[in-house]
Amino acid sequence: MDNSDLAELFTEQAEWRESKAEAFPNDDRNLDAAKLLRHLADTAQIVPPGVIKAAEELYEDAPDVETWHEMIKQIGFHRFPDNAEKFLRDYIAARTT
């Protein structure tokens, strides 16, 4: 995974949340989550390669994949990372502590 792949991942999640916002227009959380995910996509280009590599190495084990997907789902609902690097560092911390 590189910076562009990371940005694409957040963009795809934002698009999914936007579709959920259309399906549930009375629930602002999906739209808020989509906005945050787009911000994470915008900041993905400046994440240091070493941080991406560390997260990617953890992602190879099944429990780590589950943690990754759960953390992605929580963005804008229970997790509000300031930027893409913070999200990755939170993931690394969750899997190494």
Largest sheet: none
**Computed CA radius of gyration, to the nearest angstrom:** 13 Å
Q: What is the string of helix and strand elements? A: HHHHH
Counting copies of identical and different chains, the oligomeric state is single chain
Overview of the molecule:
Helix 1 (3-23) runs antiparallel to helix 2 (28-43). The protein has 97 residues and is mainly α. Helix content is 75%, strand content 0%. The longest helix has 21 residues, at 3-23. It has one domain (3-96).
Tag the structure with descriptive keywords.
mainly alpha; 97 residues; 75% helix; single chain
Put the structure in a nutshell:
With 97 residues, the chain is mainly alpha-helical.
Write the layout of secondary structure elements.
Elements: H1 3-23, H2 28-43, H3 49-58, H4 62-74, H5 84-96
